[in-house]
Specification:
Elements (H helix, E strand, L loop, with lengths): L1 H14 L4 E4 L5 E4 L1 H7 L3 H4 L14 E2 L2 E2 H7 L1 H4 L4 E6 L5 E11 L6 E8 L23 H14 L4 E6 L4 E4 L1 H7 L3 H4 L10 H11 L4 E8 L6 E12 L5 E10 L1 H23 L3 E6 L4 E4 L1 H7 L11 H5 L1 H6 L1 H9 L3 E7 L12 E10 L5 E10 L1 H55 L5 H29 L7 E4 H11 L9 E4 L6 E4 L1 H18 L6 E4 L2
Parallel strand pairs: 19-21
Antiparallel strand pairs: 1-2, 1-7, 3-4, 5-6, 6-7, 8-9, 8-12, 10-11, 11-12, 13-14, 13-17, 15-16, 16-17, 18-20
Helix pairs in contact: 15-16, 15-18, 16-18, 17-18
């Protein structure tokens, strides 16, 4: 029965809103309720048997020569039941200002000392009780009460977290947004001793504001009550009494989570853009509305021949002199018209008057605008196309050479075709004549056969010339040099061309003594007649030709 009553009493105490702590005559804790656990962050198993003074700062353990419980008991009659404001100490070391009332019962070993704790109420209470406004209720609000209500509405509906602290410094009031930032209730924040926080930067700002100087804090704040980490910016400012003295301070809290995210994205985008600009193979620069460089990459600095760090704040004429004055006309036109100039080509010596080796450039200039259309300056893209121009000129030169080679080839094929047809016609006629004579049983003249054979030899030589030309083109021509008398070769060639010289005359002066040379006889015998025929066919008029062999 006694056990059931004890459990029922424990359940009743756990249902109470205010924290209760009971201890024995030795001032060691015998029981706490659930509200105490929530307020101070301890489990009852951890506190039972410990001194009651562990729940208060060391500076309050003894007062006027007495322990804190005995001192408060001694003041019961003088206080007349009024609670005493003291600092309680949470398990994490944070101090909270609470209202404490102490009572005792029993004597000697049966003595029980009971502490009742109550959180401090907010100075600014934004809640309105509807029952206060029913007919027959309390009198209408005064002007001062109306002003206080407007202030409460202002604080509660502000888009920033707001809290107030006194000179202690203890938080005396805050709005709901601030408690949402921290992730706890206003009851857990009001009464919090700011100088017991673990963040030295925040405590420094609190001291500065109590000294009459505003202070800013920005960083990742970890809430002691919940462990929540939140990036915040807090503006601390002093609050002054009517006599001009500092009576406390106010903190305005901004959650900068979204700003941090945007800044991180911006930094990432800027890093990517910076990498793109720095590693670009073309010159990139930006001129402000006064046509002064704001930034250039290394490629543009190399094109200008001036270090990149020397560009910002200077104009093109200041950097490059007279050529810069000429080059500045493009960006100036873009600023004047608002229209881009694309792929403008210039040559260093002709267009810009720059001495030294010729360099070719291609540039584009375009206006840089904000989203609302305001012009910030001019973007510059410059490409050095000197090597490209040289390659184009080299390709054009090679193309002309190829065209000339094709023309020569076509001329050669035309002449070769003509030369092939020349012996075929008489050869065909002679063969037809021989065929008719044989049919009639007539005797054949040996000279006719020799002439036919001669025509056939010429045809074979031309075919061999064509084969040699194809072998030369393919790089497979094999030469077999042998000792040859050039005078005999020339005489043989002239004799073979006797019937084709037309109006041309050939004078040959043989050498006084034979002089053998090393050559490919078959090659000479085939190529020489063709060369002579080519020369004869391309000569404008009939003229004598001389040939001599040393």
């Amino acid at each position: 029965m006694a056990g059931g009553a004890a459990r029922e009493l424990e359940a009743i105490l756990d249902a109470a809103v205010d924290p209760f702590i009971a201890c024995g005559p030795d001032e060691r804790i015998l029981h706490i309720n659930a509200a105490t656990e929530r307020l101070l962050g301890w489990d009852r198993e951890q506190l039972v048997g410990r001194p009651i003074t562990d729940l208060f700062p060391p500076r309050l353990h003894r007062f006027h020569g007495l322990s804190l419980p005995r001192y408060l008991l001694s003041r019961r009659k003088a206080l007349g039941g009024r609670p005493t404001r003291v600092f309680a100490r949470r398990r994490d070391g944070v101090e909270l200002q609470v209202e404490v009332t102490v009572g005792a019962t029993g004597l000697d070993g049966d003595e029980r000392i009971v502490f009742t704790l109550r959180r401090m109420h907010e100075v600014v209470d934004s809640l309105e009780e509807p029952v206060e406004r029913i007919p027959g209720g309390p009198r209408p609000a005064s002007h001062q009460e109306t002003v206080d209500r407007l202030y409460r509405l202002l604080v509660e509906n502000a888009p920033l977290g707001i809290f107030h602290f006194d000179r202690t410094p203890v938080i005396t009031a805050c709005n709901n947004l601030f408690s949402n930032f921290i992730g706890t209730s206003k009851r857990n924040l009001v009464g919090l001793h700011l100088l017991t926080l673990r963040d030295e930067s925040i405590m420094t700002c609190v001291r500065e504001s109590l000294a009459g100087r505003p202070c800013d804090y920005e960083g990742d704040y970890r809430a002691l009550t919940t462990g929540k980490v939140i990036p915040v910016r807090i503006r601390f400012a002093p609050c002054y009494a009517e006599d001009g003295t500092v009576e406390g301070g106010v903190g305005i809290v901004e959650d900068i989570t979204e700003r941090r995210r945007v800044e991180a994205e911006r930094e990432e985008n800027l890093a990517q853009l910076d990498l793109l600009v720095r590693s670009a193979p073309v010159g990139i620069g930006f001129l402000d509305t006064n046509l002064r460089y704001v930034r250039v990459n290394e490629t543009l600095a190399r094109i200008n021949g001036i270090p990149a760090e020397d560009h910002p704040g200077r104009t093109l004429p200041e950097l490059l002199g007279e050529p810069g004055t000429i080059a500045e006309q493009g960006p100036r036109q873009v600023l004047r018209t608002g229209e881009p100039l694309v792929e403008q080509e210039s040559v260093s010596d002709e267009d810009l008057g720059v001495p030294g080796p010729r360099r070719c450039f291609r540039g584009s200039f375009y206006p840089v605008r904000t989203p609302d259309g305001r012009v910030l300056g001019v973007g510059v893209l410059i490409e050095d196309i000197t090597e490209r121009r040289r390659a184009e000129e080299e390709r054009a030169h090679l193309y002309r050479e190829a065209q000339e080679a094709i023309r020569v080839r076509d001329d050669f094929l035309s002449i070769a075709s003509h030369e092939l047809k020349t012996p075929l016609t008489p050869l065909s006629l002679r063969l037809a004549t021989l065929e008719r004579r044989l049919e009639r049983g007539e005797n054949l003249d040996p000279s006719v056969l020799r002439h036919a054979r001669h025509q056939l030899t010429r045809l074979t030589g031309l075919i061999n010339d064509l084969l040699d030309a194809s072998r030369i083109e393919a790089g497979r021509l094999a030469l077999h040099p042998e000792s040859t008398r050039l005078d005999l070769l020339v005489e043989h060639t002239l004799a073979g061309m006797e019937g084709q010289k037309g109006n041309h005359t050939f004078d040959f002066a043989p050498p006084r003594s034979p002089s053998p040379s090393t050559a490919t006889r078959s090659g000479w015998s085939r190529s020489s007649p063709t060369c002579w025929r080519t020369r004869s066919s391309t000569a404008p008029t009939a003229a004598p030709s001389a040939c001599g062999c040393p």
